[in-house]
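Session log. Operator J.P. requested a structure for one protein chain; no other inputs attached. Running the standard single-chain path with token output.
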Amino acid sequence: MSASQTGTPITATDWTSDNWGRIYLACPSNGGIYQYDPSGGFTTAGLVPGAPIFNGGIFVSMAQQILVAWGSTSAQNIGVVQDPLLVKWSTVGDYADWVQRQTNQAGEQRISTGSMIKGGAAVINQDFIWTDLDLWAMNYSGPPFVFGFVKIGAGAGLISSHALQQLRGGIYWMGPSNFYSYTGQGVMVIPCPVWDVVFQNLNTAYVANIRSMPNTPFNEVGWLYPSAASANGENDSYVKFNITEPNQPWDYGPAGALARSAWIDQTVLGNPIGANPTGVIYQHEQGYDNDGNPMSTSFTTGFFYLAEGEDFAFVDQIYPDFKWGTFAGAKTAQVQLSFNVVNYPEDTPTVFGPYTLTQASQYISVRFRGRMMSITVASSDLGSFYRLGKVRYRYAMDGRR
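Structure written below.
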């Protein structure tokens, strides 16, 4: 008969966690801090004795290995109370010692702006604390004050505790009404050409469910969020951009495009891992199919001008530019191209296509006339890889209206 593990179930909708060497530390939102030692035998995680009993979340400051709790507990004349703007930290090298003494470095500091702390993280050479309004730097200075706090991002608050991420040398996060970055140039608003798709279609009752979506293999930062169509508040949409491509191009997936309630970036386990709201765990960027089935994919570019002002253009040939397979693999991909043509920005597009292309396709013969065009690229074949280059077209001016 196999051994059974016993313990007290914990009801929690959200967690923050970090590692203290081999010790795993975790904090349910507005709860205590738990520890788990994998070398401790067949035991469950237990509360850290002496740690604050209520906390918004935790992280480990790597300056001197100090456990930091935000939205933590302050002592009152009778009992304790959770203060949404209080930062507390343990002494150096001991996550169980939180009592302030002259002989240790445990301490606390209350943030002076905002209504609550939304998140915190150990970042490049320092620590960050985000409120709903601002970003604060938390820098280790040693005794007697231990940490100094400086506001470095006025108005650059955080929308949820998991809406921040680190990639390469930058930190990226989603605020209540903008996206932000912190690099060598300080805190910057990230220009977002699809801003309205996100912030005008966000289920604001469930912003706590927003998750960052870093994807190191493809140099992308992104966010999973619940759209207005998500009645239960689960994430059903995403938005992301590439940090290395010129102009940092953005793309998005509308309601139903990607349901993920959790995400971790590339780790020792391999490429990013995500979980959907029903508890199914997926490893992403593995092969080119959908769990053994063809992956039906498509994307549509923004509209671009064929002609300016009153002029019209007539297009009769399209010259595709693709890679049709991996570097050493078979070049067997099939791609469908469609061309969406309008005369004015708000017109209903006239769609030409789809045209199925392979490596043997030198050009497409078409006949359409208009001022603006967008391109839809789609595929649904099994096991294929393709990459889009620069599609060109032959045109001639074709009068005015």
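Operator note: Helices lie at 195-199.
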